[in-house]
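Worked Example 4.2. Read the sequence first, then its structure tokens.
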Amino acid sequence: MVHMRRRLFIIALALSVFIVVPCRAEEDTYQEEADRLARLLNWHEGSVVAEIGAGRGELTLAAAKCVGTNGRVYTTELDAKALANLEGLAVKNKNITARQATETETNLPVESCDSIFMRFVYHHLTKPTKTDASLFRSLKPGGLLAVIDEEPRSGTLVPDGVPKNRDGHGVPKRILISELTAAGFEIATVCNDWPLHDVIQSYCVVFRKPSR
């Protein structure tokens, strides 16, 4: 009986390692990305920031800590269930505002944001030209846009409804830059060593809306 209990304890301990460690690694990755975004986008007390396609809101929460009680973080989603989760975060964090986005519109106030960011969202845009225009309108003059995405991997499928020039799951950096500069943005910074780069060929491009 003692041996059986010991075996069960060892099994439970092993399972806890498999369950806990990946979660901790994921949290560490989000924090590393948040720290880099904070530097690239100059998040500080009082900043107005927006995350497009925020998912569970991990980076939204990190941004909210940086901008403080005098700042504002808009967080958007298309999916109703995901939006409901973000609305729950907004109830608990008074400097967060959740917004329902559409396929073509951020639904953010015009020229309201000091910076906007999106993480592995751009390659899912079905009408990028219209979305890019909406992003441009949502930023203040001189505001920054950070797009984190990945180069398409060989043999992967293009997501439904997106332009076929994506060449797989992801978006070629050259196409991303071409589309956003056509929308009026200027390139500010290109990061080819994003934290997930050793897993997938990820990158981050920071654009600036020209000042008037």
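Now turn to a second chain, presented in exactly the same format:
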Amino acid sequence: MLVPALTAAGVATVAAGVASYAAACPTSQLFGSTIIAGSNPNQLALTFDDGPNDPETQLLLDVLARQKVRATFFVVGRYVRQRPQTLRAIAAAGHLIGNHTETHPNLFLCSSARIREELIRCNTAIEDAIGAPVSFMRCPFGYRRPATLRIALSLGLAPVMWNVTAYDWQQGITAAQILSNIQRGIARNTIRFRGSNILLHDGSHRAFGTNRRATVEAVRLLLEQQSSNTETRFVTPQVWA
């Protein structure tokens, strides 16, 4: 009986590993289709999570405006209610706005009812602020399960993940380190003939007012570097939908 028991344990371990990969890996499609990036390595998407946030979101808008670059902001509903004027500024500048839930929970651990409530409340906050519907969402931490994606799609929200991680949430990280993380990710995707969907943060789920100046500076440096590359095109996930 020992061998069958060990075999069962091994199968369970493998199954748990596959489930963890499907739930957490940003590029996994095992739990359902998500938007990541296209096949043109010259297409770069700047995506910012966890805002709106003072004053970093406005500083980013200024940086983006100087280079005439359009980005995507996945916003948290409770922060939208605190700063609806900032969301209106994002929309007025022509950037794409997406749903990042009401309170930023781990949706893998939430009931279906809670998932739906989180997405609906964030949708409502966004639509009340800018008077326009929302078509895209991003799961907090990237965690999802099949029900998460089904509920999002039932609400007309296309799930968006990423394939470049800037790690700008790490304590004490510098603008140079953030930029290096982005550059390595872009280089990796270029070799694979993929566009780059870059995960950044203009805020934090932990607290409103989190300092993200290093992110702002890294974005400024990236845009200045890319401005000399005539083939680079900054896009939003809409082009890959």
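Notes for the reader: The mean pLDDT is 93. The first helix runs from residue 2 to 24.
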